[in-house]
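Quick review question:
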């Protein structure tokens, strides 16, 4: 069984990594920024941090070209 303190430490480390990515968004891919935003949106310490992460995620998603987004969405639902 995994100790609760180990889980808390692991989550705290992921939050630090996510905040680091978001703080330097220009140097990271949209995909990595999106992952970081998801972590912060669900596990951020404050309501403001969670809200800001959701807003940034919307901005990142809006930057995807429409055709690329449609192609990715279509391919996501196609079964092999």
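Suggested answer, residue by residue:
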């Amino acid at each position: 069984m995994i100790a609760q303190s180990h889980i808390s430490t692991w989550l705290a480390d992921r939050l630090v990594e996510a905040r680091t990515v978001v703080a330097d968004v220009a140097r990271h891919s949209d995909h990595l920024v999106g992952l970081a935003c998801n972590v912060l949106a669900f596990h951020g310490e404050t309501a403001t941090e969670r809200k800001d992460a959701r807003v940034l995620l919307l901005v990142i998603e809006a930057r995807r070209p429409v055709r690329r987004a449609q192609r990715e969405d279509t391919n996501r639902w196609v079964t092999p």
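Why it works: The two ends are 37 Å apart (CA to CA). The chain has a mean pLDDT of 86.
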